[in-house]
Amino acid sequence: MATHHTRMLIIGSGPAGYSAAIYAARAMLAPIVVQGLQPGGQLTITTDVENYPGFRDVVQGPWLMEEMQAQAEHVGTRMMWDTIVSVDLENGPPFRAIGDSGDEYIGDTLVICTGAQAKWLGVPGELELGGKGVSACATCDGFFYRGKKVAVIGGGNTAVEEALYLTNHSDDVTLIHRRDTLRSEKILEERLMKNPKISVLWNKAVESFAAGENGALHHLMLKDTQSGEASTLEVDGAFVAIGHAPATELFKGKLPMDASGYLLTEPGTPKTVIPGVFAAGDVTDHVYRQAVTAAGMGCMAALDGERYLAANPHDVAQVEAAE
């Protein structure tokens, strides 16, 4: 067990964490990134990425995250393969965090980039066909289904918004909902019902995702939630849209959150209610949830952290030399 000191401690990786690290390292803050259970975040389980600026051709999500990590390390970031299990925000700065390894991390500033995970159905074929027809982000992957038949699974705002968005690419969009009424806002429901490209299957639950001969998604196995009758729906793409869960368990009772568990920040900034503590990326963003917006927020958090340190000098333990 060891103690690690830094001017900026970043919990979580992905576009927000790595971008914060790049800016912090260039500001000579010797940042430490504790990467967590999924280094690189959700993009590591995404295949084709076509909407991240700077790349003419499609790039792979894992490769993009590897490059961001390498850039952060190149400019002076220390990457720690650990998972934070507890944090002390009340007695900071400096702020203290304990890793699963038993190591202690002490940061004069703290940037929270723990992200959010899409909620999944947990049915057969869903995991296996991820990136092969099954997705949880229409904004990310809808472009790949131009002119094809797609389905959206869910009945809330997320599902309706995804279905409406997909009509930009497909003339055949089916919304599948396990109940007979939507849970979305009425204005969204009205737009959905008026859109000739969208049809709705009521009282249907997806039992499994099935592949075709080419190994990609071919059809959905459905079950009527009232009669129990089984049916199939052939689709090229299926988007699970039953919401996201932010990774904020560590901060319950320590930082304000909205009803869904997303961290609350000062509007237009990554600043939380605790001076010196910042939140960036999907952990605080339930609207956009894009790699480029997460990266932008990570940049903002590092810049605000640097300004905070300049305006609030205090005695702290000396930063450890990079290993």
The biggest sheet amounts to:
7 strands, mixed
List the helices and strands in order.
Answer: EHEEEHEEEEEEHEHEHEEEEEEEH
Mean pLDDT: 91
Shape: elongated
Helix-and-strand structural type: alpha/beta
Report helical residue fraction: 10-25%
How far from one another are the termini? 15 Å
Task: Report strand %.
Answer: 25-35%
Note the quaternary state here: single chain
Instruction: Please compute the radius of gyration using only Cα atoms.
Output: 22 Å
Spans of 5+ residues with little confidence (pLDDT < 50)?
315-323
Please tally the helical runs, counting DSSP H or I stretches of 4 or more residues. 6
User: Count of DSSP E strands?
Assistant: 19
Task: Describe the overall structure.
The chain has 323 residues and is of the alpha/beta class. The chain is built from 6 helices and 19 strands. Strands 1, 2, 5, 6, 7, 8 and 19 form a 7-stranded mixed sheet that branches. A 5-stranded parallel sheet has the order 10-17-11-12-13. The longest helix has 21 residues, at 291-311. The chain is elongated, with a radius of gyration of 22 Å. It starts with a strand and ends in a 12-residue tail after the last helix.
